[in-house]
Amino acid sequence: MALCLAVTLVHVLLVFLYVAPPNVISQAYSRQVNAWVRPFFEQNWRLFAPNPQSANRQISARVSRTGPDGTTQAGGWIDLTAADDAAVKHNVFPSHTAQNMLRQAWNAYLKTHGSDNRPHSERALMIEKYLRNIAAERVAAQQGGAFDSIQLRVISRPVAAPGAVGVNPPATTASTRAQTRYLPWWKVASHGTD
């Protein structure tokens, strides 16, 4: 009981230091505070000033297996976003995790990686691993079987401007077309069983 209370108090203190205005204590212990808070307890003020998505993103994954003869076989694309949407659609009390985990992991990846898909910091490397693990767990849960590499594909479609319903759409421009981004193949710990 005492350990649980101590952990709770430390957690509340560290989150408070994370969201509080910069001060001597939060600056002195910023490395420890950030290590505890990110990525699982990260706080923001979007509840009060939402930053809506400007694009609908479809995140898909495919896996590859290395056969006994050393050949690599890649599977078909699995739509992870559709699985998330289906889990939320008819659920009266959908979990925040089911709704946002994959989307938030992708948004964090975009912020920490350039267009070259290379991590440029320890945080970027951590976010990459986080995204890879989410995708690997979801694929393993959906299709079963062992695999040792995973690749993600993200198709981004801009959200239509309000009031565009029933109006002839303007000619498709580069900014309104769907964009597809392929991430490199990532090695993962073996998932599933044969």
Structural commentary:
The chain is an alpha+beta fold. It folds into 2 domains: 2-37, no CATH class; 55-160 and 172-191, no CATH class. The chain is built from 6 helices and 6 strands. Strands 1, 2, 3, 4, 5 and 6 form a 6-stranded antiparallel beta sheet that branches. Helix 4 runs antiparallel to helix 5. The longest helix has 22 residues, at 122-143. It is globular and about 55 Å long. The termini are far apart. The mean pLDDT is 82.
Task: Tell me the series of helices and strands, N- to C-terminal.
Answer: HHHEEEHHHEEE
Indicate the low-confidence ranges by residue numbers. Answer: none
Structural class: alpha+beta
Give a count of the beta strands, DSSP E runs of length 2 or more.
Answer: 6
Task: Give the biggest sheet.
Answer: 6 strands, antiparallel
Strand-residue fraction? 15-25%
Span between termini? 43 Å
Number of distinct helices: 6
Number of domains: 2
- Dominant shape: globular
Rounded mean pLDDT is 82
